[in-house]
Amino acid sequence: MTTLGTGVLRIRNWLRDHPLALDGALALAVYVAMVVGSFAAPGVHHGPTFGTRAPAVGSVFLMALSAIALIWRRRRPMAVLAATGVLAVVELVAADPPAPVVMSTVIALYTVAARTDRPTTWRVGLLTMAVLTAAAMFFGAAPWYSQENLGIFAWTGMAGAAGDAVRSRRAFVGAIRERAERAERTREEEARRRVAEERLRIARDLHDVVAHHIALVNVQAGVAAHVMDRRPDQAKEALAHVREASRSALNELRATVGLLRQSGDPTAPTEPAPGLAVLDELVETVRRAGLPVEVACSAKEGPPLPAAVDLAAYRVIQEALTNVRKHAGPGAKAEISVVRVGATAEVMVLDNGQGTAGRADGDLVGGGHGLLGMRERVTALGGTLTAGPRYGGGFRVHAILPLKARAQEPDQPDAAGRTGENA
Fold first, then answer.
1. Do the strands 293-297 and 334-341 form a parallel or antiparallel pair, or are they unpaired?
2. Cα–Cα–Cα angle for 375, 309, 218, nearest 5°?
3. In this structure, is the dihedral angle defined by the CA atoms of residues 349, 399, 358 and 211, taken in order, positive or negative?
4. DSSP annotation of 403
5. 209, 288, 329, 340: least surrounded by Cβ within 10 Å?
6. Residue 403, Cα to own-chain centre: how many angstroms?
């Protein structure tokens, strides 16, 4: 049974790939059916009888021509319908009783209905039905109401209806397939977009963690190396700060990398989300590294900030302080303020350092991504960020974060592109 099914499937696929061969086989089958039918004489009471008549030579010739024309029914459906219709009318007018040449016209009308639109099917079908039925009624020897004449009318009508039904089903199946393919493409594009967004978010987190803590480690290691011989106690204190900063960096890296675990992996933190609740610890770390920092944070009062806004505010402050340590020069001081203003939270980091030349785009020129990451993070929440030199010296970073965070619309201009915008 399996071998038989496989053979049938192979034959079906071969015929689908060779439609001309299929139409040739159909033409041969129609010709055989017309020849067999031409030997039947219509009966009045007991149906048709065979052997009482034989087709004329002209009828056999017309049946052969109409059958041959069906070979090209897919390529030229209207031309084949016209040719078979003319041959059928000739047979109905010239022969008595006529051979069933009209059978080829029925097949041709079905093909036209299956391969064109519905208005064309109505027009062509009604015209074919009217011409063939009128020829049979007016030129045949039988009465106009005979069953043979009504049979021509019925068969041509059913051929048009069947072809239209097949065309409608093909169109319906094609529309379903197209919707399924479009939905699949949409799912794939959405998955790629989400992967890209997640990669960008993890990259920002890694940059924030590594840049901040490694900068502190670098500063404290330099201090330890400088005072190792003359002030060993101060060198030990600097090395302790290095140890603490490196431990914090490892903890935050472990939390960030935990996002990459699979669902079956051991439980790991799902969000590397420090916030303003640990701002004092961040400031204290920076102070121990030698940078005086003053803090005014009224945003802690009242309801807590949304998690995404809280994280963004913390990361902006962290990156800004890292840049102060790297670029502001000796003797610099920093000021931090976080306040609620209506439906927004405003974060501002100021310094009075003198090493401000090129800081607005220094990250990009030097290969870093600090300011760019801050802008992307703030813009993703629907906020704005400006960074630039202050009048009289120093640098300012100012972020406005909506308390109801929203994703940035795709067609809106990206505020992150305004690198180096002055305050």
1. parallel
2. 60
3. positive
4. S
5. 329
6. 31
d(CA 103, CA 87): 11
Q: HSE (CB half, 13 Å, CA atoms) of 144?
A: 6
**pLDDT value for 413:** 38
What is the token pair recorded at 300? 């802690």
List the Cα angle 257/262/264 in 5-degree steps: 130
- Most confident of the following: 161-165, 191-195, 390-394: 161-165
pLDDT the model gives residue 50: 65
246 close to 214: Cβ distance less than 8 angstroms = no
- For the chain, the straight-line distance linking the first and the last C-alpha, in angstroms and rounded, comes to 81
Judged by average pLDDT, the poorest of 69-73, 174-178, 292-296, 357-361 is: 357-361
DSSP letter at 140 equals S
HEC states along 272-305?
Answer: CCCCHHHHHHHHHHHHHCCCCEEEEECCCCCCCC
Mean pLDDT of 80-104: 87
Pair 351, 394: CB distance under 8 Å: yes
Q: What is the rounded CA–CA span in Å between residue 92 and residue 86?
A: 10
Pairing between β-strand 384-389 and β-strand 395-402 as defined by DSSP bridges: antiparallel
pLDDT bucket at 26, cuts 50 / 70 / 90: confident
Per-residue b or e along 256-276, where b marks 16 or more CB atoms closer than 10 Å to that residue's CB: bebeeeeeeeeeeeeebebbb
Q: Which two tokens stand for residue 79?
A: 């031309």
Is the four-CA dihedral 90, 93, 97, 102 of positive or negative sign? positive
pTM: 0.48
pLDDT tens, position by position, 222-281: 767 776 767 777 777 777 777 777 777 767 766 666 656 544 555 444 445 678 888 888
φ, ψ of residue 295 in degrees (nearest 5):
-125, 135
* Closest residue by Cα to residue 275 from 316, 227, 234: 316
CB 63 within 8 A of CB 101: yes
Two structure tokens written together for 390: 């202050």
Q: Exposed e or buried b for every residue in 305-319, given b needs 16+ CB within 10 A? A: bbebbbbbbbbbbbb
Which tokens in the block code for residue 95?
């022969």
Give the C-alpha separation, 97 to 151, whole Å: 14
Residue type, position 359, single letter? R
